[in-house]
Amino acid sequence: MKRLIPAGILLILIILAYFSSQSYIMDTCNDARELVEICEKDYRDGKDAYQAAEKIEHLWEDNEKPLSFFVNHDRIDDIELELSSLLLYSRSDEEELFYEHIERLKMLLHQLKEDTKINAHSVF
């Protein structure tokens, strides 16, 4: 009985940590996704998409350290690489490259969200 109480407390702490990390990752990805949509819309409308890309980068920089506790560093690095490419191409006239990088960024954010959801694949 003495061992069950600490084990139960530890299990509750693990479950709380998981759900709080999942919530943090989901909120960060949703905020970044909204800014990506704004950036894409601004570029399509001929506005300055660079400002929206900078907002995405600032959001990511602010949330990068806490995310590194929960997410594989390779995924964070991939998203940072796409953000730097997005900043570069948001001021260029090469539409194809801009849309390629923005779609890749959307895909990486979506994968990050999907990998944190509870399913049979993530459990095993």
Name the CATH class: Mainly Alpha
Rg over CA atoms: 18 Å
> Which fold name is given in CATH as the topology?
Four Helix Bundle (Hemerythrin (Met), subunit A)
Can you tell me the CATH architecture? Up-down Bundle
**Main β-sheet: number of strands, strand sense, barrel status?**
none
Strand-pairing-aware structural class = mainly alpha
Total domains: 1
Distance between the termini: 29 Å
Contiguous runs where pLDDT drops below 50 for at least 5 residues: none
Number of helices: 5
Mean pLDDT figure: 88
Q: How much helicity do the residues have?
A: over 70%
| Shape call | elongated
Which percent band covers the strand fraction? under 5%
Q: Please provide the count of β strands.
A: 0
Quaternary structure state of the chains depicted: single chain
SSE order, one letter for each helix or strand = HHHHH
Textual characterization of the structure:
There is one protein chain. The protein is built from five helices and no strands. The chain is an all-alpha fold and 124 residues long. The chain has one domain: Four Helix Bundle (Hemerythrin (Met), subunit A) (Up-down Bundle), CATH 1.20.120. The chain is elongated, with a radius of gyration of 18 Å.
Write the layout of secondary structure elements.
Elements: H1 4-44, H2 49-70, H3 73-89, H4 95-116, H5 120-123
Helix pairs in contact: 1-2, 1-4, 2-3, 3-4
Describe the structure concisely for a colleague.
With 124 residues, the chain is mainly α. Helix content is 85%, strand content 0%.
